[in-house]
Design a protein that fits this description.
Blueprint: H1 2-31, E1 35-38, E2 44-49, H2 57-63, E3 71-78, H3 82-88, E4 96-101, H4 109-112, E5 120-124, E6 149-153, H5 159-165, E7 173-177, E8 197-201, H6 210-216, E9 224-228, E10 231-233, E11 249-253, E12 256-258, H7 262-268, E13 273-276, H8 281-293
Parallel strand pairs: 2-3, 3-4, 4-5, 5-6, 6-7, 7-8, 8-9, 9-11, 10-12, 11-13
Antiparallel strand pairs: 1-2
């Protein structure tokens, strides 16, 4: 009993000091132009770095010691390395992590896989800092058992990343537009039993088209599809969408639809909200040339 009282007293004694450190750090971050969230007890629960490119190794080490952080965002051009990720991987309470850039390799995903409470992980422009990365490290995210949403838009990642994601069975939402994914790569998504939404597009390269959308039409759990920057046809893929009994939303952004129009598609999918924007003429010309080469 005495031990329990002493332990409780230690917690009560040290907790105010910890919160004071959080408040001081929050004030420091705000003064530097970053955004923070502090709860009613004074604990630092959220940080958004407006410009993360100047963060030092010491800054990442300091981040890794925060005990209440739930949300962390790195804007600017983040230069987080695998070593820096070791500190981020110690944030046991973290639920949301978003990063623009990074110098991570596939090895850097191993410490991120330790984030047991992570629900949402978003990368932008992953792989553009001249470091070797294929996306194979995504398999480590299988250990983030609460992870529901993952994105790596604008990245150099291709089909190897999707293959690695087949281990992340808990994944529900995937965003991977402006990447190097191909029609063949989308076949891997059939191994994700809980996938509800996907946002995918090949940046007008025609690496994705009818074959890819036809594959998505075979994933019965899908509720929302955004398919962008390509050319699709009625017979090649659009007619297959009626197989998706759970489908609620369908978006075609900067996409050419051939052999049908939105009204016809809406008639075939009466319970689905459909949005469509056509590509600009120069983009359509570029896609047509790519399609001829393919």
């Amino acid at each position: 009993m005495l031990f329990r009282l002493l332990t409780l007293g230690a917690v009560l004694f040290f907790a105010p000091g910890l919160r004071a450190d959080d408040r001081a750090y929050a004030d420091e971050l705000k003064a530097a132009g970053h955004s923070v969230k502090v709860d009613k007890d004074g604990s630092l629960t959220g940080i958004t770095f407006a410009k993360s490119e100047n963060l030092s190794d010491a800054d990442y080490e300091r981040l890794g010691k925060l005990t209440h952080l739930k949300q962390l965002t790195f804007y600017g051009t983040c230069k987080m390395t695998d070593a820096n990720a070791e500190h981020v991987g110690r944030l046991a309470t973290l639920e949301e992590l978003a990063i623009n850039g990074t110098a991570l390799t596939d090895t850097g995903f191993k410490p991120l896989g330790k984030l047991a409470n992570l629900r949402r992980l978003t990368f932008w422009h992953l792989g553009w800092q001249k470091v070797p990365i294929t996306g194979e490290g995504f398999a480590e995210l299988a250990n983030c058992t609460k992870l529901e949403s993952f994105g790596f838009a604008g990245s150099t990642i291709g089909d190897d990343g999707l293959k690695a994601l087949t281990r992340v069975k808990q994944l529900q939402h995937l965003s991977c537009y402006h990447t190097r994914i191909t029609d063949t790569g989308l076949l891997h998504l059939k191994e994700l039993p809980n996938l509800k939404s996907i946002n995918v597009g090949p940046q007008f390269s025609m690496k994705l088209g009818d074959a890819g959308l036809a594959t998505l039409a075979t994933i019965p759990t899908l509720e929302r599809i955004t398919f962008s920057e390509t050319i699709l046809t009625h017979d090649g893929s659009l007619k297959h969408l009626k197989q998706l009994k759970s489908l609620k939303e369908l978006k075609f952004e900067k996409t050419e639809l051939r052999g049908t129009d939105v009204k016809q598609l809406q008639a075939a999918l009466p319970g689905v909200k459909i949005e469509h924007t056509a590509p600009e003429p120069e983009m359509l010309t570029k896609m047509q040339k790519q399609l001829e080469k393919k």
